[in-house]
Amino acid sequence: MPRRLMLPILLACYALLAVFYAFSTPLFEAPDESLHYAFVDHLASGGDLPDQRQPGRWAQEGSQPPLFYALMGAWVAPFQYTNADLSEALTPNVHAYLGDTLLIHQRNRNRVVHDGPTAPYNGLTAAVYAARLLNIGFGVAALWCVHRAARVFLPEHLALTAVALGAFNPQFLFISGAVNNDILTAALGSAILWQTLLMLRDGFSLGRSAALAVLVALASLTKISGLLFGVVVGLAACWVVYQRRDWRGFMTLALCGVVAWSGIAGWWYARNLTLYGEITGTAQMVAVVGSRPAPPLPDLLRELTSLSNSFWGVFGWFNIPAPSLYYFIIDLLTVTSVVGLVVYLRRRTTPSRDRLMLALLIGVAVGGLVALVAWTLRTHGTQGRLLFPY
Predict the structure, then answer these.
(1) For residues 214 and 192, what is the distance between their CA atoms, to the nearest angstrom?
(2) pLDDT value of residue 101
(3) If we measure between CA atoms, which residue out of 199, 197, 204 comes closest to residue 251?
(4) Contact call for residues 103 and 319 (beta carbons, < 8 A)
(5) Average pLDDT per block of 10 residues along the chain, 390 residues long
(6) For residue 112, what is the DSSP state?
(7) Which residues have CB under 8 Å from 10's CB, separation 6+?
(8) Three-state DSSP class for 267?
(9) Whole-number Å distance between alpha carbons of 175 and 189
């Protein structure tokens, strides 16, 4: 098969599988989907950004940056349904067992009450499915950017492998087919890494600096974790200056970054400072969702196991695990991959440029993991899907 066809085929297979997940998952039975969609509906109905000192049915998700919700709100605005339709669809199932994959003997797993095995087709159902399909489109963009980033320093077959590892990860498919802001953040993060790797390879350019500035601003207006990519770009730019002594290019990138971030995202962070007295709004988010005492080390280590499992496949509201054999196979492949990476980096024939770019990617993954652990020490949130942006 011609290699030029492989990427479109992989992306098409991913889209088809993600659509299958989207239409197999009952309405609002993905993690926090009901809360995300409540925020989307609020903006689609013409509401203002929430004041989280008095949170609505979107709960803690009202503390999220608004770009994803504004895009989704515009996308679902043409669909007609009433507030009563949404309220009925969000009726909680008070008997559900949520957030614990160990309760496998329990069968009452639905987060909300359903009238039947399939949702009645109406304006709300169509709107939720349309939102899920748009999220799959964000997933296609994320995987395409993964391919472009990998091709900066890897051969085509490895770039296609990188795409396949994302496209056929059951958890990525599941989250893609739901309403949440993780996949759009992943798409923007992948695009930032692609352009950052090009900057490391080719140096500064005005067009790339402007693109990176806009992408970082959009990422930080999509999710707080998008701020990490600004740090990544800054560190990479420092390395380019060290290697090339191109201070003019560095200053151009810095100026583009300040202008783009101030114009695109800065207003929302200034709003947080005005309303809540802190720039990110995360303290207010913790106040809504609830804080937790610092877990002891054994509990934290057990949560890391849950984190790994839920990166590869835990469904429902974190209460429907995959078969245990699947996790064993994934763990074995992960250990093998890490060993292979170490062997590759230790080879004297490994190009120094490849080492540098792999170090950047590993640093992003480690930085994302550290940020997630720091977050879960403040509140319950040890879910692997939160690592997808990295």
Answers:
(1) 10
(2) 61
(3) 204
(4) yes
(5) 89 98 94 95 94 91 96 96 91 82 67 81 92 98 97 94 96 97 97 97 96 98 95 96 94 97 96 94 90 76 84 90 93 94 85 89 93 85 88
(6) B
(7) 143, 160, 163, 164, 167
(8) helix
(9) 16
Q: Which helix (H) or strand (E) holds 45?
A: none
Residue with tokens 């803690």: 60
Return phi, psi of residue 370, to 5°. -65, -45
Handedness of CA 356, 360, 362, 363 (dihedral sign): positive
Q: Extract the tokens encoding 204.
A: 């500064």
CB atoms within 10 A of CB 121: 9
Q: Which amino acid is at 337?
A: S
Q: 288: which 2 tokens? A: 């809504």
Q: Are 226 and 189 in contact (CB under 8 A)?
A: yes
The length of the chain is 390
Q: Is 368 exposed, middle or buried (0-12, 13-18, 19+ CB in 10 A)?
A: buried
Question: In the chain, which ranges are continuous DSSP H helix?
Answer: 6-24, 33-44, 67-76, 83-89, 123-151, 156-167, 170-176, 182-202, 206-220, 227-244, 247-264, 266-276, 282-289, 297-312, 324-346, 352-376
Phi, psi for residue 183 in degrees, rounded to 5: -75, -40
Find tokens 């039947």 and name the residue: 116
**Per-residue pLDDT, 104:** 56
Residue 320 has phi, psi (to 5 degrees) of: -125, 95
C-alpha of 151 from chain center: 22
Is residue 290 left, alpha or beta, with left meaning phi > 0 and alpha meaning psi from -120 to 50? left
| Tokens linked to 345 | 């980096």
Look at residues 143, 83, 132, 92 and name the one whose alpha carbon lies nearest to residue 114: 92
SS3 category, 79: coil
Q: Which two tokens stand for residue 7?
A: 């990427």
Beta carbons within 10 angstroms of residue 98's beta carbon = 16
Short-list 37, 218, 207, 216, CA closest to 128: 37
Query: What is the sign of the dihedral through the CA atoms of 324, 330, 336 and 341?
Result: negative
User: What is the CB neighbour count within 10 angstroms for residue 69?
Assistant: 27
Distance of CA 295 to the CA centre of its chain: 25
